[in-house]
Design a protein that fits this description.
By secondary structure, this protein is mainly alpha-helical. The longest helix is centred in the C-terminal third of the chain and has 30 residues. It is built from eight helices and no strands. It folds into two domains: about 100 residues, Orthogonal Bundle (Rna Polymerase Sigma Factor, Chain: A), CATH 1.10.1740; about 90 residues, Orthogonal Bundle (Arc Repressor Mutant, subunit A).
């Protein structure tokens, strides 16, 4: 069996049979987003890495319980979310600011053969502006934006992951979009003023 021929459904079936290659396939496909969720909650790279490791261990041990009625990612991210909350409760850690996403998670990398150097600089500028703008969001707004846009979860899936009701999710997304619009408008205005 080769990893390139493995689909998510086959990987889940093989993971139930304790196939290490299936574990690697699922880990490779969901590790970056799982880490993003964990770091938003625990606000610490080392703790987030442990949360993700614990979450995958829990998921692989309980994979027989995964109901195929939903997406595997939703089920896994709920485990990550709950594991991260448990870690915070156990450590009683409260931090004011979230650590920057590590560049190694690959979520913003663009292959060299895709765009030229100038386009890469523009993309890096946009990412930097967005990261700076995200700092004005509350923790829950930041998590809602990440789950909805980055992980491409639906409102129902976010409800399943976080336990928030749909109206709360919609309000958090709406407020986050408003804050991001205002913050990005300010940043772009400041940059234009600096250039002129």
């Amino acid at each position: 069996m080769t990893e390139t021929k493995l689909t998510e459904d086959k990987a889940i079936e093989r993971a139930i049979e304790r196939d290490p290659e299936a574990y690697r396939f699922l880990l490779k496909n969901y590790n970056a987003y799982a880490f993003s969720i964990a770091v938003k909650i625990v606000k610490n790279r080392e703790d987030a890495e442990e949360v993700v490791q614990d979450s995958f261990c829990k998921a692989f041990k309980a994979i027989r319980n995964f109901s195929r009625s939903g997406k595997f990612s939703t089920w896994l991210y709920k485990i990550v979310y709950n594991t991260a909350l448990t870690r915070i409760r156990n450590k009683k850690v409260i931090m004011d600011s979230i650590e920057e996403f590590p560049d190694s998670n690959g979520s913003f990398d663009i292959p060299d053969n895709y765009v030229g150097s100038f386009e890469k600089l523009v993309q890096a500028d946009q990412v930097a502006l967005l990261k700076k703008a995200l700092t004005v969001l509350t923790e829950s707004e930041n998590l809602a934006i990440m789950l909805y846009y980055t992980c491409e979860n639906t409102i129902v899936e976010i409800e399943s992951i976080t336990g928030w009701n749909p109206s709360t999710i919609k309000i958090r997304l709406f407020r986050a979009r408003q804050k991001l619009y205002i913050e990005l408008s300010k940043q772009l205005k400041d940059e234009i003023n600096e250039l002129l």
